[in-house]
Amino acid sequence: MSIGVMVDSLFSLRINFLLAAKDPMPKIPFRYLSFACIAVIGLSFVLLPSHAQSADVEAVQTFLREEGYSSGVADGFMGPRTQSAIQAFQADQGIEITGEIDPETLEAIKNFQQPPPPITPSAPLEPAASRNQNWLVWGVAALAIVFLIRAIGKKRHPEPELKGTTPINSKSPKTPADAAPLTVSVKADLLAPTPARSTEPSVRSGRSGKNPWVPQSESATVGGRKLGGMVYVGPAPKLGRYDEFCRAFIDPSLAVSRIGNDFEGTGMSYWPGYRSITATSRATYLDWLASDRSDPRYNVGYMFLYFYGLERRFFIDKPSPNERQEILAEVRRLKGAYGDNYSARNYLSRFIDAASVSSRTEAEIDPVFENDYYELPLSLRLVLGTKVGNNEALSADWMLSWLMCHPERHLRTPAIRCWEEFRTLFQIKFDIAHPGGMKVRTPKRTLKSSYSAASGEFEVELPITVNGREVPDISTLRAPVNEAQTFATAAMDELDKYSRYLGRNPDGRGTLEAQALLPSSLWLHFPSTELEELKAWAAALVESGGLVPALDMIERLEGDRPEKIGKRHLTGAADALARIGFGLAPDPRYGLRSPRNEDPVMIFKLPKGLTELETVSNGYRRALTEIALGAFIAQADGEVVPAEYSALEASARNAADLTASEKIRLLANLNWLLAVPPDMSLLRRQVKESTDKDRDAFRQIALAMASADAVIQPEEVGGVEKIYRALGLDVSTVYSDLHTATMSNGLIPVRPAQEAVAGERIPEQGQSPNKSKVELDFDRISATQKQTADVSELLGRIFATDEAEDDPDEAPDEPIHDGLGGLDPKLSAFVRVLLDREFWSEADYAELCQRFGLMESGSLETINEWAIGRFDDSLIEAYEGYEMNAEIVEKLKE
User: Fold this and answer.
1) What pTM was estimated for this model as a whole?
2) CA of 700: how far to CAs of 586, 629, 775, 787, in Å?
3) Which terminus of the chain has fewer CB atoms gathered within 10 Å of its CB, N or C?
4) Of all helices (H) and strands (E), which one includes residue 548?
5) Distance of CA 354 to CAs 66, 319, 332, 377, 706, Å?
6) For the residues 113-119, what does the mean pLDDT come to?
7) What are the tens digits of pLDDT across the range 827-857?
8) Do β-strands 196-198 and 225-228 pair in parallel, antiparallel, or remain unpaired?
């Protein structure tokens, strides 16, 4: 220890103590002070070893300073600063961290330098002996200091209490009336300034008497790095609790490694402080500050360490309005750079919210539509409360903001993927229901809030007033939110298909198919000239008969020609055409067979106002099944004669219990079924597992349709035989079964009577049927329809396409709850923070619970019970800390 330093410390202590007392310096006999100094000097000569000030130590200090590990003077004395620098060097070299100049450290220095440093100690250093004797010197010095303090105390008046703020929940005596408590600097017409509950001292320490805050326009250099501004540089002030120091202050006296490569942040805790992190982490942090402060390679903890200073400056130091806006803009930039991290997004958003309220008036605050916290944003509560208190109606945007920020909202993918379309559709529906806006009752509860620093170092109360009046707190109202949820759900339902299309085609917004899937009420808001061209194309097809190759249609709608047509293509095409007033046969949702690549499809005009085709009646499904089976029998001989077509058309037009629009769609499907070849192989494959009752029902339908036109052609008999074979029935019974079917309506002549040579003359029975004129028995047709009702569901399954493909995009969108459904909003937010780390120390977990207002054991039990019920395993394993279950974490992050 330096004798000069010791003596200087004694004089400095005396002078500083007297100045703090603000009393005239008492007259203390000089002999007291002289005796203390002589005693210390004498003991130092007796007790300190000969190498206490060593050239070897000075050489090591010089090396450390040249390499950036120390900013102190190379004076040859071994002190705390030198030990800290040695520890930083040892950490970088991967050797044992002792803080001493031991042989291993000397060898590392030799290997580090090229050429080796001139460190050639003549005798081994004895740091242990030095320490054993140094404590005697310090002991004598302490006794001398105590002696001086007692002498001074006898000569001066009693000390007044120091001015400052009282820590939160402090049991110390109250501050005097003239103390200056910290307040929140806000606009007078918006927030009433109140004392900030803080652990900060009222007088800050500075760098060499200067303000430690470095403005944005200035820069500071620490550890050989030019940092830029908006940081605190100087000794960190104590917080007044648990011997903690302000986390954000960059103390230049602390050791900094030459190389900063702790990108993962292994040398700092979850709530870091510059003083507490390692020398390597300090170097890494300084490198981050010297960069653009957004490099994704660096752990987010470095951003938080920087942010601690910004929030402290904003709320504690009371900067100018211009500087407040600079800080607010910087935090918004940080949120844009680190918004993917939940904790960062959460804390930065809360600061932006509180800072916006404290620096802008209610009229200057815009609606917000995102919120990860379990409470409504303060700025939103302020605006809504002010409007409700003034009996103003809330617009669609403010109601949507209320819903989107509510912790119990229910959203699906369309609200996120199609945000602009969803917002516009919500506004349309809201304005229809509330043309002049929604009036909300005024709650009795008034708005109160506070800002808790992310650093945990202070909390400021934010009681809110507008024009001198308290603001109602709308956060407890549920009826307006429920109604807004109704509008949002309806909007999401209408955007489902559009959203799924964009999910399959992220760049598909604005294409013809996407535009056609857009709800018609949004067409004026999102116009498309190509859509009008599509309408003209479809209308021209209908005029020419309606048939178009399936691949040509898909290419016209999507812009690409697929190698194979799937259900996804056809569903999208049907929805797109329906939005512009045209139908598609077959409709893939309930058609009996899908077209193949070489098949055509039928486009037809839909009745006006019909755009939703997903739902059809049971009668329509039965009628579609009948004409499909009839078309198959009619095509059995390779030709559909006019009589057969007329019978099928009449069956479609006279189908019972169908709407006019369903009959139009049924006729279009009939035309398509007759335009494509029958698929007997599909029938064979599908009926293998049918029951005897099912087979008999098929047999009855085939026989009824074959005899429906009163004339049975030989080819139709062949078609019935094919159906019998597919069903596994005895083909030899076809003729007897046909005879039985026709007898139910009386004798039906198969051919005109001819002259015979001999025998009895057949009695006249009227004119023979003419193939050019078909007489239909509608009672018989109706009976056939009723007969097929009990098997319509089975027929639909058997004739359904075997090309249906599993498409995850066709499934309805699930609610957005990021895997945490079942937990309340506060616990959900708590778990999202837990997911940021694989392991939590007991101290960090306890502090996190405290910040969320949760009990440690209670939160752990509730979360694990939820995880066991959902994943059959615990999420958190408590053993010497808290380890997160990696498998469950991965599932929750998917």
Assistant:
1) 0.51
2) 26, 11, 21, 8
3) C
4) strand 547-549
5) 45, 16, 13, 8, 80
6) 47
7) 887 888 888 788 888 888 888 888 777 888 7
8) unpaired
